[in-house]
Amino acid sequence: MSTRDRPQPRPLPWEAGTGPRARRPSPSGYGPAGTATADPLRAAHAHCQSLQDALVALRDHGLEQVAEWGRHLAATLPVGGRLLAAGNGGSAAQAQHLTAELVGRYQQERSAYSAIALHADTSAVTAIGNDYGFEELYARQVAAHGSPGDVLMLMSTSGRSPNLLAAADTGRAAGLSVWAMTGPRPNPLAYRADEALCIGSGSTATVQEAHLVALHLLCETFDHEIGVVDGAASVDGVVTPYPSP
């Protein structure tokens, strides 16, 4: 293929057009949100480095806590306990990701366990929001679905969402174990929860990505521990059902 026949690369956003609407890099090379706009590859490297730093910190300081949460769920859910999970925006999606892994499965076949993502009931969410206000969105559902000994997982990059703070207060008053995954300490949600895993990054994307890794690690521990209950063998952390007699 000749050079003339090769498709030409698309111009970067700030290279397209010459009028007043054309996007151009700021003198410093950074956009208004602090992201490098003059060099997308540099921004991508910075994003990956931010995530790498967060995961190193999680590995060095957070694994035991995540594993303990997995062990606690493995002792709670098989005897009738329940996990309630909540968040806002991307954190709501991650809360639902966690409950799906428990009701369905993470890697290996096992029993189904009770887990509810509180944002997913659209009728309840809109009714509560309309009648009581957004701040009560999750607290009222915790009061309805939670019982002493259950677990409430609250996910927030800021740790300051009023509806999650209200849910934490309601959960603790009702005898639930309240866990939080948040961004950097200090934040109100980490203070109000019984236990908190805090990702020390100023990047919302990095915090959410590290939360997802932590959720998967929690599920790995849960599956490992639940193998004893479900009649399965665990070898090197992989749960395999015992063969039928």
Structural class: alpha/beta
Distance between the termini: 64 Å
Which strand order does the major sheet show? 2-1-3-4-5
Subunit arrangement of the protein: single chain
Verbal overview:
The chain is an alpha/beta fold and 245 residues long. The protein is 45% helix and 13% strand. The chain has 8 helices and 7 strands; from the N terminus they run ααβαβααβαβαβαββ. It has helices at residues 40-61, 63-76, 90-103, 122-132, 139-145, 162-173, 188-192, 204-229; strands spanning 83-87, 115-117, 151-156, 177-182, 195-198, 232-235, 238-241. The strands form 2 sheets. A 5-stranded parallel β-sheet has the order 2-1-3-4-5. Strands 6-7 form a two-stranded antiparallel ribbon. Helix 3 packs parallel to helix 8 and helix 5 (139-145) runs parallel beside helix 6. The protein is globular, with a radius of gyration of 22 Å. The model is unreliable at 11-33 and 232-245 (pLDDT under 50).
Give a short overview.
Helix content is 45%, strand content 13%. By secondary structure, the chain is an alpha/beta fold. Helix 6 links the parallel strand 3 and strand 4.
Write the layout of secondary structure elements.
Layout: H1 40-61, H2 63-76, E1 83-87, H3 90-103, E2 115-117, H4 122-132, H5 139-145, E3 151-156, H6 162-173, E4 177-182, H7 188-192, E5 195-198, H8 204-229, E6 232-235, E7 238-241
Parallel strand pairs: 1-2, 1-3, 3-4, 4-5
Antiparallel strand pairs: 6-7
Helix pairs in contact: 1-8, 2-8, 3-8, 5-6
